[in-house]
Each structure stands twice: as C-alpha cells, then as structure tokens.
C-alpha cells in the first residue's frame, strides 16, 4: 500500500518520563447537582460532574492495578505488533491520565517522511475518547465515511483517515485504549479482520495488566 507523507507536525509535547501518576486527591470529586456553584469555583454542570467522577474512577483503577504510567518496552512491543499485523503506520497503548498517555507507541521510521507522534495528547483529541466513553471497540475504516468522526484534531494535524480502537476495561471501568491509525482509508470488507486484531492485542494487554506481567 502506498502512503502519501503528510507534512503537518504536532506541537511538541512534554516528555512523559517527567510525568508521575496523579495522586488520588488530585481527582477527588464531590458530585454536585446541575448548576450548583462551589465557593471560589465556576458552575459545575451535572454532565461535567459526571465526567470528573468517571475520570476519578479511572485514576483509582490505574492505581489499583499498578499500571505503568510511563513508556515500557512491553507495551511498545504490543503497539508495534498491532501496527505490523494491521499494516497501519501508528499503534498505541493509551492510558487516560491528565492527558492521553501512550505507554506503548509505534511510529513510522524517522526517515519515512511521516510525522512522529509524541507520547501525550489532549484527552479530548482523536477517537479514543469515544471508545472510552462507549466502552466498545470503534472500527473506522474511513473516518470521512461518518460525519460524526470526520472532523477531528487528529485528522487535521496528522492527516489520519482510518482508526481502529478498543477499550482497556477492568470491573466496568475503561482506563484507556489500544488503537491503530493510518493516513490511508481501508476497505470496508477488511474492517472485521482489522477490528479482531486490535481486540486480540487489547486482550493481551489486559491479561498482562491484571497479572502485573508487563515485563518492563
């Protein structure tokens, strides 16, 4: 498959090696009714309070499972395996911390002419937030085939046209995702095969997480 290099670059992101897992108190939340104002704070809507509570649950579960919050060779290997098996340029194992944090990452070769993605991204960008919210796999063989998913920061910044992602879930809480992205769309009749590869890698990642067998 021939790819057309995309020249646009993302702005530099902080090195995740300098990031530590937020303490539980950073995400302690009192869920307030819609429209209630806390002294010294802006109004918190019911929807915002719910989102904050869910994020607090994710952080608590990441603590509980003792998931590494920095890059590891094991998760980098999983991301690379997933990218190679699907034929995608990029692969990620992604935790939803203060930012989306790629504890596993596969990039195209540095001399390929394609953008090198950093280890962190805004928690609202891309399609992984949708996967975490719905707690189901999201196979997008062509993001422009779906109006809801065609306008996205990642489309504009990296030129991505296909995405396959699946949630990392334990006890009903989605702590992150595994995903692959690519600047070329994929045939619709290949979507199930690609989805199943991503789901298989997701299951491998969760097995390693729950057994603490991440082989750092």
From TrEMBL:
InterPro entries: GAF, GAF-like_dom_sf. SUPFAM superfamilies: GAF domain-like. Residues 75-191 form the GAF domain. Pfam families: GAF. It comes from the Bacteria. This is GAF domain-containing protein. It comes from Streptomyces lannensis.
